[in-house]
Amino acid sequence: MNKRHKQQPCALQKKPALHAHGQHFLQNKQVVKDMIRAANIQPTDIVVDIGAGAGAITMLLAENSCRILAVENDPRLAETLRRRSQAMPSITVIEKDILQMRLPREPYQVIANIPFYLTTSILQLLLQPQNSLLQRAVLIMEKGAAKGFTSRTIRSPRLLVWRMWYEMEMVKAVPRGCFSPPPNVDSVMFRIQRKQEPLLPVHLTGRFAALAEYGLKHPDRSIYDTLNGIFTPPQLKHLAARLGVDRNLPVCRLNERQWSLVFDTMLTHVQRLRWPGKHR
Ligand SMILES: C[S@@+](CC[C@H](N)C(=O)[O-])C[C@H]1O[C@@H](n2cnc3c(N)ncnc32)[C@H](O)[C@@H]1O
């Protein structure tokens, strides 16, 4: 046999490991029940299960009579779930990459044990205020990621924009033994809730995002050094008093409420030509 057509050694023929696709299946029904309770699911809700697998969450959700969109891109798992839910009209199985999916055009909830490798992309998809009607999500995610999203300091412009719109909190730890196979990192139940009163109107999101990009380019710089490219010294003095902070504090220590004051002060008192971004 020609060398090039020799069979590959077995190790190379192995299927990719399940966890390479974030496939850590929930084995513990109580965790799923706790997620459903934490999301306060009502019979009238539309609920998206992202990475539905064989249905650990979807099947229990169906007991709440809500409408469920179960999204799964692994054809074998999607087929299993289609079979399991055949007689359940409230469940629609969507065999698709979640990142290619059009989200509901009406208010919806998410309950999901997400593939960890897509955490940021999934949040990016769900938390775009311009095109997402997400009301609440209860997700299982890696503890490290959850800590970053709820951190007291805000170093990422994207996170800052999300937090203008959504409350984020860790609900509780989910032990590794609740999954099969167990992940090699710690996991938590994480809740995202649309704020009753968002800190930003949708139509100003682009303008605020430009301020966030500018303001957090060097998150450890002081508030004064960061913002003196936008505000004049008297405006900065007025702003520091409004914020109730020392102007030498690192800018990453401002919370989302304080950033909304920075934004408001900029819109009210600063000439447009000094605003960051292309939206002048
Ligand atoms: C952590 S498992 C959760 C499975 C199930 N929900 C459970 O709790 O047992 C994540 C699931 O997401 C699926 N998945 C991975 N990437 C995906 C993608 N891009 N779009 C949709 N599903 C995906 C995996 O196949 C896997 O079934």
TrEMBL record:
Belongs to the class I-like SAM-binding methyltransferase superfamily. rRNA adenine N(6)-methyltransferase family. One of its GO terms (molecular function) is rRNA (adenine-N6,N6-)-dimethyltransferase activity. S-adenosyl-L-methionine binds at residues 24, 26, 51, 72, 97, 113. Coiled coil: none annotated. Residues 31-196 form the Ribosomal RNA adenine methylase transferase N-terminal domain. This is rRNA adenine N-6-methyltransferase. It holds the Pfam family RrnaAD. Keywords: Methyltransferase, RNA-binding, S-adenosyl-L-methionine, Transferase. InterPro entries: KsgA/Erm, rRNA_Ade_diMease-like_C, rRNA_Ade_Mease_Trfase_CS, rRNA_Ade_methylase_Trfase_N, SAM-dependent_MTases_sf.
